[in-house]
């Protein structure tokens, strides 16, 4: 309906009111409400669901391949930021083939001569921390595939291992002491994520497609005993029991886990259906490699990466979990799920539109405030310890 000139309508009402006053006045009241609304900004349903976000690309930096304290710097699969110390912690997915499982502490130096287009001036590797199991020794070689990392103030990081199905090794999430690398506690995963048979599993994560992502809500800056926080992770690909192998038209169905972390045992709040983007063409592989929680509750960013004949690709989505159905009691997500509401998502940025060569991007975190007060976002790539790949670090400005 077009917005009409209400003053003209009022003139008509005044001219005719002596003939049909009651009817005209009633009609005028209704139209007044409608026409007044025409002057208000029109907001569609999607704009009400999602935040007003955008990403501005600022810089592409390559971290040199070199040894550091007898370890090769590579396999960088996850990154998290410690705002109080102004340091980044980056997990390596080395299973022990080159050095023990570990994370690095990085200092990122920005060239802020121009607040409009800051660049990465340098990245310093300050230390490496070896991860230790419950017994106090480094995790055995080949029994940990660390992919995700999330900092928890004041002195912990959470580590996600995606498991190795063919070896009968289950995925896990462990809290680790930031300074010593020592195991603190385990975050119990539901049994449906644990493979039931290494040789021919009928449930659980697929081999090398488990938990790649890990994030904590940004408000959890304090000790969990006084300031509980939320932890999120999602499978890289569908669980075995959720695969739609006979229906290629169904989008891949991943499961997202949401925990409450406090001074007691971690509590699983909910599990939700996350559908992967099904518009990627000429792709040999596609999966979800990272989540990033935003300060606004129920809103996160997700990183979906793919690889095909044209190289690596990646997309960042904004997702909203508030209206999603809890799937924790659904044994299998196969087929069409008419009564299951998935997590809502919208494309925020297709990184292939940046015009730069992308590597295997797997990690994403909010970084320091830029010189103009805006929020930075940092991404890292996993070079797979391959001479043909690089340790790529990307810098963005996240605009609210």
UniProtKB/TrEMBL annotation:
Transmembrane segments: 20-40
UniProt key word rRNA processing: no
The Phytase-like domain, residue ranges: 71-385
Keyword Ribosomal protein: no
Taxonomic lineage: Bacteria, Bacillati, Cyanobacteriota, Cyanophyceae, Oscillatoriophycideae
Name the UniProt record assigns to this protein: Esterase-like activity of phytase family protein
InterPro entries noted in UniProt: Phytase-like_dom
Annotated keywords: Membrane, Transmembrane, Transmembrane helix
Species the sequence originates in: Laspinema olomoucense D3b
